[in-house]
Amino acid sequence: MNELIKTFKQNDGSVAVDGRDLHNFLEVETPYTKWIDRMMEYGFAENVDFSVFDKNVHDDTAFGGVRKMKDHVLTLDMAKELSMIQRTDRGKQARQYFIAMEKKAKAKQQLPIPKDYPSALRALADSMEENQKLRPAAAYTQKMLANPGLETTSVIAKNYGMSTAKFNQLLHELGIQYRQGKTWLLYAKYQGFGYTHIEPFSYFDQKTGTKKVANTMKWTQRGQKFIYDFLASKDVYPQVERLTLLS
């Protein structure tokens, strides 16, 4: 299925839609912030139908080359309703697209029924083996996602048994981030998903004897999950999981 509107999976496995991406596809003339505020009047509930996050976008005119914009993560049901509310050809097309996505996801969830008893035993054994493989990952991600705040790269690097410099270099070599001055920033393909948050911090410059301000990049829950999944695909795991797998 061609991806008309960008979607992504949430931690619980459900499919979600980026609010601004939907707004762009629907070709709504009203600015996004005013439009989404008006859509909320239809009774959608925060943390049930949607969640709010700050999106960092590249902007050469902004301080540090990054501008912060408010965005929303929409459930598939909310995205469908918003599409219907528009009453346009684009809205109808979006709604049909989301319905087709739901059908495709449900079809994938339906497992084939074993034809005989040996096949059933084999399927059960495969399932148990897979659960054993996933158990350390689940334990780590549950602990990681239990912290709703932002996390520094140095803390994440420590979980992987690396220095901050080595971990930053690894993410750079994998094409995730690049360095601009003293600040690490995500490459364009990974921006706009709410993975990171840029924060200013003050420090004392020993050479000049003055107080200065610089930016630092911190990782959101979604960003930490992104790092974990990306590195796991490269067979790079946190220390706690490597020890479990070795044992």
What labels describe this entry?
two-stranded antiparallel sheet; 8 strands; 247 residues; 4-stranded antiparallel sheet; single chain; alpha+beta
What is this structure, in a nutshell?
By secondary structure, this protein is α+β, with helices and mostly antiparallel strands.
Describe this structure in words.
The chain has 247 residues and is of the alpha+beta class. The longest helix is centred in the middle third of the chain and has 29 residues, at 117-145. Helix 3 (76-86) runs antiparallel to helix 4. It is flat, with a radius of gyration of 22 Å. The chain has nine helices and eight strands. It has a four-stranded antiparallel sheet. A two-stranded antiparallel ribbon has the order 5-6. Strands 7-8 form a two-stranded antiparallel ribbon. The protein has helices at residues 19-26, 32-39, 76-86, 89-109, 117-145, 153-159, 164-173, 221-233, 239-246, and strands spanning 7-9, 15-18, 50-58, 66-75, 177-180, 183-186, 196-205, 210-219. Strand 1 (7-9) and strand 2 (15-18) form a beta hairpin.
Ordered list of secondary-structure elements with their pairings:
Layout: E1 7-9, E2 15-18, H1 19-26, H2 32-39, E3 50-58, E4 66-75, H3 76-86, H4 89-109, H5 117-145, H6 153-159, H7 164-173, E5 177-180, E6 183-186, E7 196-205, E8 210-219, H8 221-233, H9 239-246
Antiparallel strand pairs: 1-2, 2-4, 3-4, 5-6, 7-8
Helix pairs in contact: 3-4, 5-9, 6-7
Stretches where pLDDT is under 50 for at least 5 consecutive residues are none
Portion of residues in beta strands equals: 15-25%
Please provide the count of β strands: 8
Mean pLDDT: 79
From the alpha-carbon coordinates, what is the Rg to the nearest angstrom?
22 Å
Strand order of the largest sheet: 1-2-4-3
- Shape summary: flat
Derived from helix and strand composition plus strand pairing, the structural class reads: alpha+beta
Q: Tell me the major beta sheet.
A: 4 strands, antiparallel
Per DSSP, the total helix count is 9
Spell out the helices and strands N to C: EEHHEEHHHHHEEEEHH
Rounded to the nearest angstrom, the distance between the terminal CA atoms is 42 Å
Q: How much helix is in the residues?
A: 40-55%
